[in-house]
Amino acid sequence: GAVVSQHPSWVICKSGTSVKIECRSLDFQATTMFWYRQFPKQSLMLMATSNEGSKATYEQGVEKDKFLINHASLTLSTLTVTSAHPEDSSFYICSASKVDRVGRDEQFFGPGTRLTVL
Amino acid sequence: GESVGLHLPTLSVQEGDNSIINCAYSNSASDYFIWYKQESGKGPQFIIDIRSNMDKRQGQRVTVLLNKTVKHLSLQIAATQPGDSAVYFCAENIRSASKIIFGSGTRLSIRP
Hints:
- The complex is a heterodimer.
- Chain A is mainly beta.
- Chain A is built from no helices and 11 strands.
- Chain A has strands spanning 4-7, 10-13, 19-25, 32-38, 45-51, 57-58, 67-73, 76-81, 90-99, 105-109, 113-117.
- In chain A, the strands form 2 sheets. In chain A, strands 2, 4, 5, 6, 9, 10 and 11 form a 7-stranded mixed beta sheet that branches.
- The mean pLDDT of chain A is 93.
- By secondary structure, chain B is an all-beta fold.
- In chain B, the strands form 2 sheets. In chain B, strands 2, 4, 5, 9, 10 and 11 form a 6-stranded mixed beta sheet that branches. Chain B has a 5-stranded antiparallel beta sheet with strand order 1-3-8-7-6, with no helix packed on it.
- In chain B, a hairpin with a 6-residue loop joins strand 4 (32-38) and strand 5.
- Chain B is globular, with a radius of gyration of 13 Å.
- The model of chain B has no long low-confidence stretch (mean pLDDT 89).
- The interface between A and B is medium-sized, with 25 and 19 residues.
């Protein structure tokens, strides 16, 4: 168990358009979901933490109006990149956490979404 | 600010030899540390973790060592195989903040 999916796996869009990325926990209910961004040859940078039914908590330097996060249920979170520009091109990865048998939060990562903005 | 970083950005190892990947961290408030493996175009895959009150933990072919005195973490892979080729990240879980912070990564390449 503990599978996380993302859709789409890759997307190409024109500059100025908006793109929505879905993150789903397939076989468990996630207490929290996280969104990361990864540029080529760099590490994962946490963008925001998302809890079902509440506003996302954004990391310093991440524009909340540009990266809209909606966490509608315990199994689905979406990230919308609004008015995308070429510099938003990146690999976006989500993770979902659940509490294990000893009370520890475990994060399970999705396969990522490659966004290319032309 | 607080960060988790790595000493070596790339590591080339002969197939069959042991690999050691190192990581330095600066946040003393971490509850546990995690090693992830990331293959090209994929999300991170959990390898092994270690609680902050432990010094060593072993898994299948992997061992993680934690030295809190010098804030150093290492991942040892025994008998490295071609399938071990990937980028390896150390990360720290800050339970009070409910988030994981990633280090900068080391690319491991295997020579035949």
